[in-house]
Amino acid sequence: MSQLVLLPHKDRSLARRHPWIFAGAVDRLDGRARPGDTVEVVAANGRPLAKAAWSPASKIRARVWTFDPAEVVDDAFFKRHIQAALERRQSIPELRYQDGLRLLHGESDGLPGVIADRYGDTVVLQLTAAGADRWRRAIIGALQRASGCARIYERSDSDVRRLEGLDAVTGWVLGTAPATPLTIVENGVRMQVDVTAGHKTGFYLDQRENRRLTRDLAADRMTLNCFCYTGGFSLQALAGGAAHVLSIDSSAPALATAIDNLALNPQLAAERAEWRQADVFAELRTLRSAGQRFDLIILDPPKFAPSAAYAERAARAYRDINVLGFRLLNPGGLLMTYSCSGGIRGEHFQQIVSDAALDAGRQARLLRRLAAPPDHPVALHFGEGEYLKGLLCQVD
Ligand code: SAH
């Protein structure tokens, strides 16, 4: 097996079990390796440290499969680790009966570049790194066995694949497309999931708990849901008895699905829902000029900062929508605001939101910090895993 030799003193982050080896830490590769091949990682003095997937095209030159240099990376490795990830989820009561569940969460499950979400009996697999791609067959086999699912759809079309020199791959790898649209029930609300054309793997499972919290907070509130996608937060607000829910998104297909989703839930008061196709940045200004006010505002924008390099521009965008959000709140109103940018850390986001309140001239308090649910765990030694951060604030 080829050896990836680190530069002197560049083994520290590995010793802290951070799974990424950046180009700047690498002295040389002894031997030959194709993209995705497993290499042995050794310190400058030759001491074995880990086994990792070689990714010559990426700035993240290797991703660690195992910190035990003696562990073999083979089909059985994936069988073992995928089974263990699913068992961990089964051991958490609130995850046991979820229709929609993240089964594999990449680095934080010890499987860099491997994402799998289960919607009913269908698993959607997303491989985002060269090593994950190399082990595709083993991963699919292990997922099929461990999940018992009838269908697996591969959705390896995320932008980050390009950084790894990988082309997009999509299609059914087990079973065929279901005859009727796939739906799941989340917190008592039925939602369609378009695994082939929807965002990510079709649905934002990472907001499940926060949508439930919205339901608990929404009673009698005039609600504004910005970046509503297929209406997840909107429908939960209706389920919680919101007085009115205005939902905004720029995507026509997402709004069409949101309206279908509302129709799938006859128990909800459809006449209280209003959908608007618009750019949130512009529409928030329009609402303010029109003198509209709300009691609950949800801001769940797309990833403005995919990496730290975009942090500054992203910070301005977050500040902008949060200033507008604070200004549109009635006294006592709630702002539920999120960032899913890996490039913006939690403290930074809180600073941005607190600056936004100052700009808006509002006195605000933090009621709760919000995050992704436990099927999206964060490995303690992998800070980048904590990508979803939310703040629930109340204004005076
Ligand atoms: N809250 C959603 C997920 C939001 S994803 C849920 O719980 O499922 C982000 C959404 O923002 C996408 O639907 C995208 O179409 C939309 N979007 C991105 N930029 C936008 C903009 N400038 N104005 C309005 N919508 C935008």
Brief write-up:
By secondary structure, this protein is an alpha/beta fold. The chain contains twelve helices and 20 strands. 30% of the residues lie in helices and 29% in strands.
Instruction: Report the CATH superfamily of the largest domain.
Output: Vaccinia Virus protein VP39
CATH class of the largest domain: Alpha Beta
Order of neighbouring strands in the sheet with most strands:
16-15-14-17-18-20-19
Largest sheet: 7 strands, mixed
Whole-Å distance between the termini? Answer: 63 Å
Q: How much strand? A: 25-35%
Bound small molecules, deduplicated = S-adenosyl-L-homocysteine
- Average pLDDT across residues? 97
Number of helical segments? 12
**Low-pLDDT stretches:** none
Instruction: Report the CATH architecture of the largest domain.
Output: 3-Layer(aba) Sandwich
Task: Spell out the blueprint of helices and strands.
Elements: E1 3-6, H1 12-15, E2 20-22, E3 26-30, E4 38-42, E5 48-54, E6 60-66, H2 75-90, H3 93-96, E7 100-105, E8 114-119, E9 122-127, H4 130-134, H5 136-147, E10 151-156, H6 160-163, E11 169-174, E12 183-186, E13 189-192, H7 208-217, E14 222-226, H8 232-239, E15 244-249, H9 252-263, E16 273-277, H10 280-289, E17 294-299, H11 311-327, E18 329-339, H12 346-360, E19 364-370, E20 389-395
Parallel strand pairs: 1-4, 9-10, 14-15, 14-17, 15-16, 17-18
Antiparallel strand pairs: 1-3, 2-6, 4-5, 5-6, 7-8, 8-9, 10-11, 12-13, 18-20, 19-20
Helix pairs in contact: 2-5, 7-8, 10-11, 11-12
This protein binds S-adenosyl-L-homocysteine (SAH).
